[in-house]
Structure formats: structure tokens, C-alpha cells
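User: Here's a structure from my thesis project, written as C-alpha cells. My advisor, Dr. K., wants to see whether a designed sequence matches the one we expressed. Can you design one independently, without my sequence as a hint?
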């Protein structure tokens, strides 16, 4: 009920009574954080910076990076992203207008963007329903559920994706819970940082490993797309 007011708009208007309104009202604060992060890179030689976003935090990043320049982030990692799947389609896509490219601010300010998603994220699956009219009507599927919309256009060159579905699913999550390594109230949507294999992959990206050389990945059906394999 408090998710957003009115029809979909990007960026959102500032309205403290809704979740997306809070994000709209926090853009300045987010950009102050980016300014601080950039000053750290200026003062500390060879500093690698990585911004990690989860769920609706990805929408905060999409709004905060929009219209911003010179953040000079090395990596932006998008976990279980509650943003539209067409956010990184390049300008030569056949799709027109507001229904594409809303993630350009992220990709323009980061050396590389890595999307981690799982088709077993039932919370994001619920978010595609009619009650969520506040999502981009051109791409109702969530980035964190289906990954980038490769089949609908050309993806930006510095965007990569990792399909974590073979790892993040209910059987594996239940096994993690049974082992005592994960609380019982965790869902696939909130489980990313409880799986050691996901953490190892994130660490490899954040320490500048080549995307194609990271362990337990297989090439996906599109350039820059990977499928995470069960660790052996």
C-alpha cells in the first residue's frame, strides 16, 4: 500500500509517505555519498571501489546515478534487483522512449556492472503482478528475477549477468538452514550473502578478476551472460 503513489514515473517524485517516494527524496544524499567515495579514490592510490545494491536498493542506485557523472566506481553489483529488466539496453535497441536505458547512469559511472539474479526469487515474481503498476510498463519482469532483457535489444558492453538459479533455490536454501549457516526466515530473495559460493563470486568480481575466468561459471546464451554452477 505504501510502495508508491500514482502511475509509474522515472525518476520518482519526492514523497516521504511511500517507499519509492523516499528514494526520490534521497537522491541528493546518495549523490553526496558518491562524492565522498570519489574523494576517497582521489586520496588513496590504487583504491578499488565497489557499490553493492540489493532489491529496492538497486532502484536507489538507478535514480541516484541518473544525471550524475564522474563517480568512477570500479564495480557496481546488482543483487536481486527490483528494477526493470530493460534498464541496460543500449540506444540502438528498437525500443523507444522511456521504456529502456534507465540504468545508463549506473553503467556510465562504473567500470563494470554485474547483475546477480535467480528465477527462484518468488518475492520478485509477486512484484510483477497487477498490484505493482508502479513498475516500468515496458519491462514488467524484474531484473533480479529474469536478468537483463537480452532478447529485446542490445545490452551495454560493460554489463554482465550471473544466473544464480542453480545455487539460489529452495532445496539449497533449506540445506543451508539445516546446517545452521542461515536463519530460518531467509528467502531466496534475501539469501545471496549467505551462500559462500555467491560471496566467492562477488569477491572475484570486486578484486578485478576477468568475468570469463571466475570459477563455477558457464557461458550463458548471450555475450556477457553467465550461469553459476554448483560448486564442486
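Assistant: Designed independently from the structure alone:
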Amino acid at each position: 500500500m505504501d510502495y508508491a503513489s500514482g502511475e509509474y514515473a522515472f525518476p520518482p517524485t519526492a514523497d516521504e509517505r511511500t517507499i519509492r517516494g523516499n528514494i526520490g527524496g534521497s537522491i541528493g544524499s546518495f549523490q553526496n555519498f558518491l562524492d565522498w567515495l570519489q574523494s576517497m579514490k582521489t586520496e588513496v592510490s590504487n583504491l578499488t571501489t565497489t557499490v553493492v545494491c540489493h532489491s529496492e536498493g538497486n532502484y536507489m542506485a538507478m535514480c541516484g546515478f541518473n544525471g550524475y557523472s564522474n563517480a568512477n566506481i570500479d564495480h557496481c553489483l546488482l543483487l536481486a534487483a527490483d528494477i526493470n529488466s530493460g534498464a541496460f539496453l543500449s540506444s540502438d535497441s528498437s525500443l523507444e522512449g522511456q521504456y529502456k536505458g534507465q540504468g545508463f547512469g549506473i553503467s556510465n559511472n562504473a567500470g563494470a556492472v554485474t547483475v546477480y539474479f535467480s528465477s527462484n526469487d518468488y518475492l520478485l515474481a509477486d512484484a510483477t503482478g497487477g498490484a505493482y503498476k508502479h513498475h516500468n510498463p515496458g519491462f514488467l519482469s524484474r531484473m533480479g528475477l529474469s536478468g537483463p532483457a537480452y532478447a529485446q535489444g542490445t545490452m551495454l558492453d560493460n554489463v554482465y549477468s550471473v544466473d544464480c538459479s542453480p545455487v539460489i533455490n529452495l532445496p539449497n536454501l533449506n540445506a543451508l538452514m539445516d546446517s545452521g549457516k542461515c536463519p530460518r526466515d531467509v528467502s531466496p530473495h534475501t539469501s545471496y550473502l549467505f551462500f559462500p559460493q555467491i560471496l566467492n563470486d562477488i569477491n572475484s568480481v570486486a578484486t578485478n578478476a576477468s568475468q570469463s575466468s571466475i570459477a563455477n561459471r558457464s557461458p550463458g546464451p548471450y555475450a556477457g551472460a553467465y550461469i553459476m554452477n554448483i560448486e564442486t
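When you compare it with your expressed construct, this may help: Helices lie at 19-25, 27-43, 57-65, 104-109, 122-126, 143-146, 170-178, 196-206.
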